[in-house]
Amino acid sequence: MDNSPGKKMLESAQALIKKTAEKMNLDRQTVKQIIEAEFFHEFSLIIKMDNGQKQVFKGWRVQHNSALGPYKGGIRFHQETVGEEVQALATLMSIKCAVAGLPYGGGKGAVAVDPKKLSKQELERLSREFVKKIHQFIGQDIDIPAPDVNTNSQIMAWMLDEYQKIKGYKSLATFTGKPVEMGGSLGRIEATGRGGLFVLQALLTKLEDFETNFFESRGIITPLKRKKIVSSSSKLKIAVQGFGNVGYYFAKLVYEAGFKIVAISDSKGGVYDESGIDPVKLMDYKKKTGSVKDFSGKNITNEQLLQLEVDLLVPAALENVINEKNASNIKAKIILELANGPITDEGFKILKEKNIIIVPDVLANSGGVIVSYLEWVQGKQGYWWSEEEVNKRLKEMMERAFEKIWRKSKEKNLSLKEAAFEVALERIVKAMV
Hints:
The chain is an alpha/beta fold and 433 residues long. Helix content is 45%, strand content 16%. The chain has helices at 5-23, 28-35, 83-99, 120-134, 153-167, 191-206, 208-215, 245-256, 279-289, 302-306, 345-353, 361-364, 367-381, 387-412, 416-431, and strands spanning 39-48, 54-65, 71-77, 105-111, 143-147, 237-241, 260-266, 269-272, 298-300, 312-315, 334-336, 357-359. It has a seven-stranded mixed sheet with strand order 9-8-7-6-10-11-12. The protein has a five-stranded mixed sheet with strand order 1-2-4-3-5.
């Protein structure tokens, strides 16, 4: 029996779709059409290494659903990636794009590789070879890749360059997350973390009962009914698991907004400091030492971070970190899912029974794909906005998406995750022919 994390993630995503579809009284064939990937591309990448030897890597590009528009989704390089995981991520991208109101379907790409073990030259050869495998079925109006775990603007630059060499023409809107010099958008690097902050602020303005029963018990008496969270938010305790691009920028931005971060971890462990942690200083420390451990306070494990008694828990690393084994030990009042699929279906059931508010990944981390969309629009029109304009549009789109999901959750007495999936399926089903 295959109990791999990738398979569990796919089962969790499909289970939520099936449950949502059942409540919406969708017919069986419609549900099957939504769940099944339209295309599942699997291939081998043969790369010449620096030592002259050849090495074979497994690669994927899954194109899940195109009812709303071209496929959209990142490319990850990770040694534990499997096909089921890529399909799960493509499925969640279809939901995420629909939740955000974007004219996209979902896609995802990956290579099973540890990029830290490759030289820069080997990484470039791998990136270019990946494009040689997928160039026939991507394009600015077909499928638009972007960065994901362990990929970045440099890798997108190599991929775009290879794509343009193969096609023989410029195509500034086929890849997003590119360097600004190659048609990338200002604000893209911080977009997922910034979007998480916007959703958190929108949520806190809505939680009137939570404000009365929870905030006031902690001595916070200033109402949180304004657009901008007031300085009293510094009394809220936040723990962030994951200190890569997403976790770092979210932590940096919420810290600047006046929130108090008491715990942060990376893949090697974490630190807990009741007096608060400055993410910028922590990142400087990590660059020097290779880890956040021993920065201040006391060292903790990633599992201990998840179980801290904090107000907001932010899983910003990989999938399935909250599951049936540890969900009952979660003490946070709110979970903001900045990672893709950080809570399994079994874990979600337990957390729901504990009345923990979960802001789902398909909403919470959609800032990245929203600014990718804005980059795509800028590339197609050949006109680029200021960072201030990009952030303004991101905020408007995140708040609009949150508002729709919040109303749905209240109208039908659903969790935010259930409401998000229902909003998404409504959009996708209306577009299906």
